[in-house]
């Protein structure tokens, strides 16, 4: 056959494999990674996950806020939404462990690898090491994603690195990474993908709240569990009928709640109109405990949420206040967050709430002894919500905890000035860290004879559907590994 006969009408050589086969020679076998077989487009679920990781890395965004909007933007069905959620949260959650593995598979410092490439590698590593995705699919889909959104050159690099990662399973990688390491904190950091300082803080927190340090592995594992969507129907306003029809299940710990491990709750009509809200059961419990706590003699008309943004607890408190003819003042010092509070409260009749924009540290001096019930949901490290905010574990620092604990003291002291005699205050953090919980309460209450601690554990049990056994020395601490809630801390304080 002439050279011209071996070329097609575009001047390209014809497939010589077939000719060899006809001539008795073995035809060439093309691998799955050959150019003809490579994907050049992004699977929608993986594209959503990648964009979530990029928003977190590039813009310091929060995954739990970005992911729902991306799911709706790309119109993912329930199956793909579940895949995107697992990919996003899983890659963010285990970032520390995956980065250590990636570092063993590249020929440079990972700090020199472009962040977009790192995000793609983390997605691929999660599929290879922690999901039931076939290895060839994990590699090919991730490389196809990279080829579509990053470029052909980076895609080839990602392909090579992922094939090295896939040469061992997660257990084998952990054995290799932990060789020669005897420090239990360092070993736990590798196995459970938590920064070492957080592991130390959580060990201290377990002991401080009446648990044992032996529970640390269970707690860290619970932080890594797939998030469960919690709903609350605002009392007197919302219904969970539509949620139950959408395969949500009744919440076992608190009335008017529901749980789901998949799907987009934003598709529910009640969620869209605000009468049903996405809210962790722990947050529901502490709000209901404040609303049910016994007051001293006097009225029960004026309620305050001192740190209301973004408005979840404020909405539940306002609905409970409305049932009693009371009014909630929701205070938030930042205007853009105050707007979120107004939106959260929009389902509650307007005569039962108002939004103020003030520095909470000045509130007590401006309105002394005015309020019957006060919620101080203080800004905190968020170490109790790491399963819902997987990126937070890699952002927080010990120095931030120290700064926040000082702010927490100032807010609590201000709120106590605003509390009337006989009134009840709930000091709440979504963190079990001793520096943000017991230490704050002890410091602010030390030497005061006009203040008494109510039994927060009993208060939680009074509003829960089953005993929680969360109390310790009159304060209460919820735990992900025990109660399947965020690690909410509660102290109930009554002014004599």
From TrEMBL:
Active site: 430 (nucleophile)
A Pfam family annotated for this UniProt entry: NusB
Positions bound to S-adenosyl-L-methionine: 307-313, 332, 359, 377
Bias kind Low complexity: ranges: 18-28
Compositional bias segments (type: Basic and acidic residues): 1-16
Gene3D superfamilies cross-referenced by the UniProt entry: NusB-like, Vaccinia Virus protein VP39
Region (Disordered): 1-39
Swiss-Prot/TrEMBL keywords: Methyltransferase, RNA-binding, S-adenosyl-L-methionine, Transferase
Family: Belongs to the class I-like SAM-binding methyltransferase superfamily. RsmB/NOP family.
Protein name: Methyltransferase
Origin species: Psychromicrobium lacuslunae
């Amino acid at each position: 056959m002439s050279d011209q006969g071996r070329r097609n009408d575009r001047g390209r050589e014809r497939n010589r494999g077939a000719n060899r086969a006809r001539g008795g020679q073995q035809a060439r076998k093309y691998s799955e990674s050959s150019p003809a077989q490579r994907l050049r487009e992004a699977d929608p679920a993986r594209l959503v996950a990648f964009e979530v990781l990029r928003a977190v890395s590039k813009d310091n965004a929060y995954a739990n806020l970005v992911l729902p909007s991306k799911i709706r933007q790309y119109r993912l069905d329930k199956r793909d939404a579940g895949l995107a959620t697992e990919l996003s949260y899983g890659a963010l959650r285990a970032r520390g462990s995956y980065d250590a593995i990636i570092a063993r598979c590249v020929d440079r410092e990972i700090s020199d690898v472009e962040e977009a490439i790192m995000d793609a590698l983390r997605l691929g590593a999660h599929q290879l090491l922690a999901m039931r995705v076939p290895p060839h699919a994990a590699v090919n889909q991730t490389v196809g994603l990279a080829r579509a959104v990053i470029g052909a050159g980076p895609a080839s690099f990602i392909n090579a690195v992922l094939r090295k990662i896939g040469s061992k399973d997660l257990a084998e990688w952990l054995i290799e990474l932990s060789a020669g390491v005897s420090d239990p904190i360092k070993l736990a950091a590798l196995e459970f993908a938590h920064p070492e300082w957080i592991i130390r803080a959580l060990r201290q927190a377990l002991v401080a709240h009446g648990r044992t340090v032996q529970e640390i592995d269970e707690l860290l594992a619970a932080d890594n569990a797939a998030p469960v969507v919690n709903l609350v129907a605002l009392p007197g306003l919302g219904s969970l009928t539509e949620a139950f029809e959408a395969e949500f299940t009744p919440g076992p710990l608190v009335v008017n709640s529901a749980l789901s491990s998949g799907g987009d709750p934003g598709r529910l009509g009640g969620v869209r109109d605000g009468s049903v809200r996405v809210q962790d059961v722990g947050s529901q419990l502490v709000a209901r405990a404040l609303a049910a706590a016994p007051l001293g003699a006097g009225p029960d008309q004026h309620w305050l949420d001192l740190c209301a943004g973004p408005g979840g607890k404020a909405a539940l408190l306002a609905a409970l206040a409305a049932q009693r003819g009371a009014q909630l003042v929701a205070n938030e010092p930042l205007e853009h967050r105050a707007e979120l509070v107004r939106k959260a409260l929009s389902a509650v009749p307007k005569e039962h709430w108002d939004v103020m924009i003030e520095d909470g540290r000045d509130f007590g001096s401006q309105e002394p002894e005015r309020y019957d019930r006060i919620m101080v949901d203080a800004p905190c490290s968020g170490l109790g919500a790491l399963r819902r905010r997987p990126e937070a574990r890699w952002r927080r620092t010990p120095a931030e905890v120290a700064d926040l604990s000082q702010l927490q003291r100032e807010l609590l002291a201000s709120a106590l000035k605003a509390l009337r005699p006989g009134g009840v205050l709930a000091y709440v953090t979504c963190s079990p860290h001793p520096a943000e919980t017991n230490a704050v309460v002890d410091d602010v209450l030390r030497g005061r004879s006009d203040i008494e601690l109510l039994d927060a554990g009993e208060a939680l049990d009074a509003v829960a559907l089953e005993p929680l056994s969360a109390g310790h020395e009159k304060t209460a601490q919820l735990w992900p590994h025990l109660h399947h809630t965020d690690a909410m801390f509660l102290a109930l304080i009554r002014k004599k």
